[in-house]
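2024-03-11 09:14:02 DEBUG pipeline.ingest accepted 1 chain
2024-03-11 09:14:02 DEBUG pipeline.ingest length=441
2024-03-11 09:14:03 DEBUG pipeline.predict start
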Amino acid sequence: GVVAGESCMAEGPNLSKPAGANTPGLSLHVPEPRFRPGDAVDFSHVDVDAPGRLGRPDETCDPSQLHDHAYGLVRVLGDDNRAHGPWDPKLDADTLRSMLGTMALTRAFDERMFRGQRQGKTSFYMKCTGEEATSISASMALAGDDMVFPSYRQQGILIARGYPLIEMINQIYSNKGDKLKGRQLPIMYSSREKCFFTISGNLATQTPQAVGWAMASAIKGDSRIAATWVGEGSTAEGDFHAACTFATVYNAPVILNVVNNQWAISSFSGFAGGERTTFAARALGYGLAGLRVDGNDALACYAAERWAANRARANAGPTLIEFFTYRAEGHSTSDDPSGYRSAQERSEWPLGDPVTRLKDHLIAIGEWDEDRQAEMDREAAERVRATTKEAEANGILGHGLHHPFRTMFEDVFEDLPWHLREQAEQAIKERQIKWPGSLDQ
């Protein structure tokens, strides 16, 4: 019986017995890339859809209809180098040649700037080799006054929009011709005229900025949309998820381009969640339209971006596009990929090279040949070489040709506060004493 005064409550847990004593111990999963330096490479695990397998839904469809598009791969160019299926944008040959020419120029620019960094003419550079279609082809599907919020590997957008190469090189050299006055890390361009938002070294900050800009455009009843680019590694940042939330809640006219090039600076995509699912599939949980695209297929990149742009302009909502591609070279001039990935990966990548694939397509349809390609490459290299020589007259790293010292106090306040004005006058005076006649140095 129950003794008076005692409750009939069930006994609590036995705290003297370790929790889970009769179960296996927990283990932490740490993502590990499939191939390390020296390993043989086998990309058979990568599912490559046949061009045309995925349909092209109506641009105003409900995001729930795009489940297969978030897990499959939108492709246009086949092994026969011809366009197939409903995603074929049916671009004319002149547009395709222009796209190819911009890719060739961007690749020549990268080669020259990389060489300049190795020669000590600048401190830092980042190439976009193997990823040209994700920026050039995609941006060509936008209107010229649509606002783009790039990451640090979208120099092709500026080149596609006709921004002067010399201005880019001046910025890389941080010389006296640099419109940003040496205040940005090399390759972090900015151009209001080309609707190219300032690149930031703080990763993923551009994503909520793009969404906010798109929301403002919608509030004003404008017709311009926003597009942003972010690496797959940066999607692990909180800013990216905040951007997705605001985009879907406010139906912002924005395109969130995720460039999945398989590698962050030295860690593979698994650390950002790539082992578990596709990056395009993240769209499903937010209620966003999601497309996963062959990022080395210039026609597919163009078609997907145009689809998303049309959707945004129709007030049908934002789109998240995963461009599935491969970073052919190092993360930057500060990175040596041979230390963490197999050297075979680039040659074994199953989706090939975007420039070669577009060139081969033009040849297959009778609109190009190898001789004209060689001439295009030569002209691009010569144009970059000549422009580099012109920019170097404005100064290179360590040669003292930079903006006047006094400019460090400019462009922040409309009217310089008294205490900064005093600091400026004192600093300039001391500089004149140390280096006579150096007011403008």
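2024-03-11 09:14:41 DEBUG pipeline.report Residues 93-118 form the longest helix (26 residues).
2024-03-11 09:14:41 DEBUG pipeline.predict end
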